[in-house]
Amino acid sequence: MSNVTISIDPHSGFCFGVQNAVSKAVEELAKGAPLYSLGAMVHNPAEVKRLADMGLQVIDHEQFNKINNSKVLFRAHGEPPESYINIQQRGIELIDATCPVVLRLQQRIKSAYQKAIQKNGQIVIFGKKGHAEVVGLIGQTNGTAILIESELDLDKIDFNRPIEFFSQTTKDVGHFMQLVAIIEKKATDFSWHDTICRQVANRGPLLHDFAAHHDLMIFVGGSDSSNAKALFDICKQVNPQSIFVESPADITADMLKGAASIGISGATSTPSWLIQNVESYVRGLVG
């Protein structure tokens, strides 16, 4: 198998927001003081372990409300307004690593909510229930935003009242536009805002093209990452010879048999170093 071609997807790895947050965490950890992260930085166990080994301590909101005189990092997903309340009084030094795209969306939703109150309007958000970003977005509306996960949730909306429709930044553009088309036909006063991050949204089409040009695709991601699952589904659709791995340890020589070209990609939550480790391991197996 020495003639096997192995390529890394140039568009794989962390999106800008996650890379920025991780870089801030590493910079702070280098200073030596204890650093807490409100929630895991990424949905990738290998990266979570790497940061933990450097000293990053992951806490939940209950623990966050009890600590004082500490340094806390808000990850790329963003936080609701209440997470910012009383931080100074508690002696907490905040490292705010909220993704700029998410931060702008929070501000837009907050502004839209303040205007909606004046005309008995509704803020509707297309997103995943319980997702950290969505929690932060709903928080901009004092918890009043209507969350839509699919067409089955549209009955939550009062179509006789004004509607302002937004999306979680990492949702599928096509699905969002399908929902827009349905709501437009039913609503009397409807405005929609395409707030999906194109760096993330474009991963799908780019991965589709990349996967189509290889005999075998190895997709690297965390098993609890929604983005990883969605992108791997794209791999499988265009290339049935696709395998999902969390680390090099998941790969065997038998998996690679018969492949003259192997492509390696990863989710927006998959660090580049892990993808490179997978490439090195695969080269060792085929060499």
Poorly predicted segments? none
Round the Cα radius of gyration to an integer and report it. Answer: 21 Å
Mean pLDDT over the full residue set: 95
Number of strands: 12
Strand order of the largest sheet: 1-12-10-11
Residues in helices, as a percent range: 25-40%
User: Pairing-aware structural class of the strands and helices?
Assistant: alpha/beta
> What's the shape?
flat
How many helical stretches? 10
| N-to-C series of helices and strands | EHEHEHEEHEHEEHEHHEHEEH
Largest sheet descriptor? 4 strands, parallel
> N-to-C terminal Cα separation, in Å?
6 Å
Strand content: 15-25%
How would you describe the overall organization of this protein?
With 287 residues, this protein is of the alpha/beta class. It has helices at residues 16-29, 45-53, 61-64, 100-118, 132-139, 173-186, 198-201, 203-212, 226-238, 272-286; strands spanning 5-8, 35-38, 56-59, 71-74, 93-96, 122-126, 146-148, 163-167, 190-192, 216-220, 242-245, 261-266. The strands form three sheets. The chain has a four-stranded parallel β-sheet, with helices on both faces. The protein has a four-stranded parallel β-sheet with strand order 3-2-4-5. Strands 7-6-8-9 form a four-stranded parallel β-sheet, sandwiched between helices. Helix 4 packs parallel to helix 5 and helix 8 (203-212) packs parallel to helix 9. The chain is flat. The N and C termini lie close together (6 Å). The mean pLDDT is 95.
